[in-house]
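Reviewer comment 2.1 asked that we show a complete input and output for one of the modelled complexes. We chose the adenosine-5'-diphosphate case, as it is the one discussed in the main text.
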Amino acid sequence: MIESLLVANRGEIACRIFRTARRLGIRTIAVFSDADASARHVREADEAVWIGPAPPRESYLNVARIIEAARATNAQAIHPGYGFLSENAAFAQACVDAGLIFVGPPPAAIGAMGSKIVAKARMRAKGVPVLPGYEGADQDLAHLQAQARSVGMPLIIKPAAGGGGKGMRIVRDEAKLPEALAAARRLAESGFGDGSLLLERYLPAPRHVEVQIFADSHGNYVHLGDRDCSIQRRHQKLIEEAPAPALPDELRTRLRAAAIVVAREIGYISAGTVEFLFDGREFYFMEMNTRLQVEHTVTEQVTGLDLVEWQLKVASGERLPLEQAQINLNGHAIEARICAEDPERDFLPSAGDLRLLEWPAPEMARVDAGFGTGDRVPESYDSLLGKVICWAPTRSEAAARLAGALDRIHCAGVRTNERWLARILQSPGFLRVEHSIAFLESLGKQFADPADAAAERRAAVFAALAVRPNSGESDPWAAVDGFTPNLPAIVPLSLQLRGQHHAIGIETQQRERLSVAIDAESISVADVLRTDGSIAATLDGLRVKARVYVYEIHVHVWLDGNHYDFLHEDPRSKEFSASTTGGGLTTPLPGVVVAVKVAEGQAVAAGEVLMVIEAMKMEHAITAPHAGTVQTLHFAPGDRVSEGSALLELSAAAD
Ligand code: ADP
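Response of the prediction step:
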């Protein structure tokens, strides 16, 4: 068995691999870039080696540096995780050449799936169902155009060397074909260094189903069941489950057998996933991922197996621990990917310091996390913070448990998507298995909708309770400055949420009874009880409890499945006085101002671009929410802005 293991990766997958290695008594070695010097995967490893600056090309994709790190630490084996170098045949070969064990398939098997064109043609020849399309060697654009016409519209163009859903293009209108092919060619060349394109009939609403397979170096092949990963946003999986629900038995059997055919055809060894599209009648081979996948966890939950342990055993030359007949599938497991992004702002990536990141307790869910409270989310890498996985005897129970577990996540400082994912898990479309990969295109926005005004007002009451000083006496208002408990007095407070201002007046009517005026409404509050990070209170006769967390001017409230990040606008603080006067536009994320498109005094129309902020390698336009006149600009190009900074003042348009 392997005795020391370097993981050429970061984040949750590095932590997850270390966990199994530790359990097996294997010495663990992390590698890290400048951006990850104090990251969790570095802290959890026995040893850690710096491999370069933050950009992936200079660190996590730097083959020479990683091999060097393995040599320096006397590592026996390298696990690539997923992403980065995991499907890079040259890296696998470099490991072998350096006398290291590559924990994954042989380089030739990775290479066999490196081109979607070659892979698809090969599987078609083996009788595996594939979608009609063109996977020929003649890549002349005029020839591709003629082939595309015969495939018919709608059609999907894929870069042969692509991955991660990148660079694919859907063409619905034949007139747009020449332009789409030319653009896809350019993207494929610049993004993957190979301009070859695959053409395929586009299915409007298929499900994504896949089979986990495993093979050893002794010629044994097994499958570990199937998964469904149809909940995707822009071709990125978000919710995955095992087994794939609602598949006819006969089809499931053929699907699993087809996956083994694919694996055998390329002489596969280790863990791999064969991906298919399912249109409700038939399945079609899409590709094989020659690595451990993000969603391998759901398979582990239904099989009770540790796939990383299997990978390490197989890499050591051992036989598969079980034969097909010994592998049992039990119950149902669902995984949700918790990402640092903001569903309310079109999934803008979010980075920065995690002031708070609480995961559900172990008895509620399996949590594979790469981050926790106090960690920093760098801007340089993908946005996955961790995964939450729930198992139950049935699918509906697993979905309910997972939604409940997601509700126990409390994250402040960085935006996350777990509330949005919980709403998807509770939606009738998902629960009835009526969803497809197109599900979120039409409904995604609905799940991201902020809570209604009444719920928001209730949350604002808790925010107000959270920021008022607690005297430690039973009456939370007893210590308020200049306030006499016997006299009715109204304490004013201003909170802001998504640019909306809430004016709050708190009036103590009698001991422990408050009336909170919020906007034009009044809510009665009684029996306020504060415990560790939570406040319980009776609001208009209803007992409710909220998790609260305050830092700087942020007042976080988690209530009824929603998360609110209020800004406490202290009239004495200069920082936010500008935005309290109305019309202040704040930046949704930390970044750098790259362009200011308007000047002070300029009249602008609603929707007009005012500023451009660059964050996480993407440009984000700040647009005018309404027509008006630019009053003050607070920043100039090149300035750094922190999240929530007021960027400029915009007056309402004159009638
Ligand atoms: P990548 O290697 O970039 O991940 P895939 O070929 O695996 O590319 O496709 C990724 C996703 O694109 C699939 O999960 C599915 O959502 C969508 N997709 C791919 N091919 C088709 C098709 N023929 N029709 C409809 N959707 C497709």
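The chain has 17 helices and 39 strands. We note this here for comparison with the apo prediction described in Section 3.2.
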